[in-house]
Specification:
With about 100 residues, this protein is of the alpha+beta class. It has 2 helices and 8 strands; from the N terminus they run αββαββββββ.
Length: about 100
């Protein structure tokens, strides 16, 4: 999986912890990768994508349930309201719905 993700121009560094079941992606500033795109790569590599901890610029909805990412206009469904951190926001993005 890390090979496929490393090939994305948006990705600066990939760290994987099999012990903790985590993939940590450091993305380049002002990248255009979407959470959906990254999750698709993870799924196609045979892994399960759960909730994601994200730092992004954009706009939070009034109720704090969604967030629109500036660079991509991707609309994320949040587990909890985002927290402002400088000119960015920190948030937990809900796991994708299973079909």
């Amino acid at each position: 999986m890390s090979v496929a993700i490393k090939k994305l121009p948006a990705v600066e560094q990939v760290r994987v912890s099999l012990k903790d079941g985590l993939t940590i992606l450091d993305l380049r500033q002002d990248n255009s990768a979407t959470v959906e795109e990254l999750r698709r790569i993870i799924k196609n590599s045979g892994f399960v994508s759960k909730e994601a901890s994200v730092v992004a610029r954009g706009t939070a909805s009034q109720d704090g349930r969604t967030f629109t990412v500036s660079q991509t206009n991707e609309r994320l469904t949040l587990q909890t309201p985002p927290e402002k951190s400088g000119d960015s926001w920190r948030m937990i993005v809900s796991a994708p719905k299973t079909r």
